[in-house]
Amino acid sequence: MLFNLQNALGLGSLCASAFWLFGGNDQRLTHHPVLPPSYPLAVRNPYLSTWMPSDRIERLPYSNSQFWAGQELGWSVIVRVNGQAFSLMGVPDLETSGILPAKVHRAEFTATHSLFDLTAGPVSLTLDFFSPVSPSNYVRQSLPFSYLTVQVTKSYGDDIQIYSDIDGRWAGREHSAVQVFEQHDDLAIHFLSVEDAVPYTEGNDMALWGQVILASRPENVSSLSALAGERQTVRKYFAEGGDLSSEGSNWSSGGVVALAHDLGTVDSGASVNFAVGYERKEAINYLGEAYTGYYRAEYPTTHEAVSFFLDDYEDAFWESLDFDRELKTSGTAAASSKYADILALSTRQAYGGIDLTIPNESLDTEEVLAFIKELSSDGNVNTIDVIMPAFPIYWVLDPDWIRLLLEPVMKYLDAGRWHLPYTIHDLGSHYPNAIGHDDQKAEPMPIEECGNLLILALAYAQATGDTDWTDQYLDIFQQYADYLVDNSINIANQLSSNDAAGPLPNETNLAIKAAVGIKAFGEMSGIHYYSRVGDEHADLFFNQGLGTDKDQTHFVLEYPDFPDSWKTPYNIYPDLLLGLDTFPTEAHKMSNDFFSSSVRGEYGVPLDNRQDWAKSDWNMWLAGTFDQATRDEFVDDLWAFMTNGKHNWPFSDRYVATSARGREPGKPVLCRARPTVGGHFAILALNGPASITSLSTTHKPGRKLSKMYIVKEHSSEL
Ligand SMILES: *[C@@H]1O[C@H](CO)[C@@H](O)[C@H](O)[C@H]1NC(C)=O
Ligand SMILES: *[C@@H]1O[C@H](CO)[C@@H](O)[C@H](O)[C@H]1NC(C)=O
Ligand SMILES: *[C@@H]1O[C@H](CO)[C@@H](O)[C@H](O)[C@H]1NC(C)=O
Ligand SMILES: *[C@@H]1O[C@H](CO)[C@@H](O)[C@H](O)[C@H]1NC(C)=O
To answer: Dihedral of CA 238/240/243/248: which sign?
Structure first.
């Protein structure tokens, strides 16, 4: 199969490029649509998350890729043209190898692809790293593999072989990595795993159980060979002979596993696919029971799953092109092309924090549950205030994911294992152990999480029409609504989601969340009392001014006596999204005026008056409540951070926004690769739920609903 990726993506030469430098006629590397901090290569779940820092693209033929947390991973791609080998990626010791560096011309990211154009002697090639995002297709979404397509785009009768290898670092513990090779018909699979692996254990965030895979099949025009062994030796065999089949594998720690396609004479174009992945049959420990990838209901063995993954390439590819295009168009229409760039870079990362699973024993697809890792802060499982900031992307792409992520928590609460009067912060201290907190010692965030849970539950019901699910847990939700009624005016000293900022009593933004949460429960239950109390709280904090300064220029950080303090009051966003009208339009207008320029640093508005750092997810939430001019300022500031070339981590949702406290602005702080970037979809979410239609191919168990929620008109107008 052969596609011209750039034409298919409709990108061609129209895209504005980041920079062109001219040295003689030497055309230098360009980035499209813009320079990101890091390119996602294979990003599908918390343990398959491989990136290429953008400052390594210039020297791509030499550059290692990285795990999201920063560990180096060996992954090379080498092409042999008329007997001369050229590295396209990942050969650090190129000088001594007899392999030449290819020239890198162009780098590009879309929502689902990272593409690099290179030339190797007379031949032009594109590396396409494709990680599908297909949340309505549970099999496709749950497969823990990613595609690397190496496409020859220009060749005039050249003799071509294409090679890729990965090393033992992918297994998480290189010195104890062991290797196995399997062939099933024409499918070749290398496996790497940690010897004597202990299920559910991590080393520096990498999985230490399960198995890394590198697989491929001959395309009808190629023949495939495989080899495992010492790094330089294996590459040398390929460089010299273009074929790996005549050698015997002898794996040892520090080695590589490799696959090579011989395409023979290529007259115009050709392409080959590799699959890279990380499979954990025992994916999640949910309350002592093993949960496994959803796809295993249909493809129980690894080779069946890999084989299907390769079979599915064409469908997945065409879906991804439609999706990438539609997301770009919708993001541009919702705000700007800069906003579309932010969405494109956020998409794989948002789903890359999640596993979609079913029970390992029954493989019953009716029991599907999703698990999300709080990457880079503490590794908690299904943190409510991670699902909360991320939820706009689920709302836009497939709102069922709100239920899929909450259901593991609701089952635990429903089992009566959590005894505190407010809801739990997360379902386990460290991924993938979703074992609850029977010791009642989860991080306490009483108002934060009660408000989040009620708002998320209503968002799900509104977006899907499914009220059976909220009805099923109505008593539990009511308990938390009552907790908010009793505890959200005189608020005890406590943390909010931004725990790095420390605890506060009477934090206005929590009071706002509580008012909206109470009203959400009123809406969900039809019990008018709660709607009235939610409105009364909003009246107290806004109309009566308890949560504002005297002149009503802004919401204060803390009440009653801190008129000069302020915090981004992002908790008001779901009030608008869900059309609850807890707060009046004037409350949005007030924030809009206050945040237009007045407290804006070099890279936007910090979280509150005490901090120099901003949270990108919350800022996009708040931006969704603004008029166009202020909203554009917020979008432009986040885009400026994303593209400033000063950092090379996966998209960070926390960064220094202002130099006011002496730190260099535009640099990330602590947070890498977090799925909370799903919150960047907040502005697009105002178009209504499931507004992206190119992902409509539904392959998931249907829910038989007894009645439907009547979706209200959305009031995204201010
Ligand atoms: C490759 O397979 C396709 C579809 O099966 C076929 O149309 C084409 O002729 C084949 N090409 C070669 C070179 O065998
Ligand atoms: C395997 O080991 C032998 C003996 O050490 C060595 O000569 C050969 O190059 C090795 N092959 C590979 C593929 O590493
Ligand atoms: C998960 O299922 C596989 C068979 O599909 C089985 O070999 C394995 O023991 C199961 N693991 C657990 C923990 O039940
Ligand atoms: C919090 O606000 C309430 C209501 O205004 C007030 O009664 C209480 O004293 C405040 N608590 C603190 C610690 O300031």
So the answer is: negative
The bound ligand whose nearest atom lies closest to the alpha carbon of 2 is: 1
- CB of 389 closer than 6 angstroms to any ligand 2 atom: no
Residues 223, 215 contacting (CB under 8 angstroms): no
Q: pLDDT over 90 for what percent of the chain?
A: 90
Establish whether residue 7 lines the binding site of ligand 1, counting it when its CB lies within 6 angstroms of any ligand atom.
Answer: no
Radius of gyration of the chain (CA): 26
Ligand 4 pocket test: pick from 506, 561, 562 the residue with the most ligand atoms within 8 Å of its Cβ: 506
Ligand nearest to the CA of 302: 3
Q: Please report the atom of ligand 4 found closest to the CA of residue 505.
A: 13
Report the distance separating Cα 659 and Cα 132, nearest Å.
Answer: 38
CATH number of 324-685: 1.50.10.10
The bound ligand whose nearest atom lies closest to the alpha carbon of 222 is: 1
CATH number at 5-314: 2.70.98
CB distance 136 to 696 below 8 Å: yes
Q: Which residue has the higher pLDDT, 246 or 622?
A: 622
Q: How many whole angstroms separate alpha carbon 407 and alpha carbon 402?
A: 8
Asked if residue 230 has its Cβ within 6 Å of ligand 2, the reply is yes
Look at ligand 4, atom 2, and give the residue with the nearest C-alpha. 490
The reported pTM is 0.95
Distances in Å between the alpha carbon of 572 and those of 345, 516, 517? Answer: 26, 7, 10
**Closest Cα to atom 13 of ligand 1:** 221
What tens digit of pLDDT does each residue of 558-616 get?
999 999 999 999 999 999 999 999 999 999 999 999 999 789 999 999 999 999 999 99
From the CB of 233, is ligand 2 less than 6 Å away? yes
Q: What is the pLDDT of residues 106-163, one digit of tens each?
A: 999 999 999 999 999 999 999 999 999 999 999 999 999 999 999 999 999 999 999 9
**Protein residue closest via CA to atom 6 of ligand 1:** 220
Q: Is 490 in the pocket of ligand 4 (CB under 6 A)?
A: yes
- Residue 8's pLDDT is 47
Arithmetic mean of pLDDT over the chain: 94
Q: Where are the alpha helices (DSSP H) in 260-336?
A: 302-311, 313-334
The ligand minimizing its distance to the Cα of 247 is 2
Confirm whether 5-314 and 324-685 share one CATH topology.
Answer: no
Domain boundaries of the chain, sorted by first residue: 5-314, 324-685
Contact (Cβ atoms closer than 8 angstroms) between residue 268 and residue 221: no
Three-class DSSP labels, 491-530: CCCECCCCHHHCCECCEHHHHHHHHHHHHHHHHHHCCHHH
Average pLDDT, stretch 480-508? 96
Ligand 3, residues at Cβ distance < 6 Å: 281-282, 290, 300, 360-361
1-42 pLDDT tens trace: 444 444 444 433 333 333 333 333 456 899 999 999 999 999
Q: What is d(CA 713, CA 708) in angstroms, rounded to the nearest whole number?
A: 15
Strand partners, 139: none
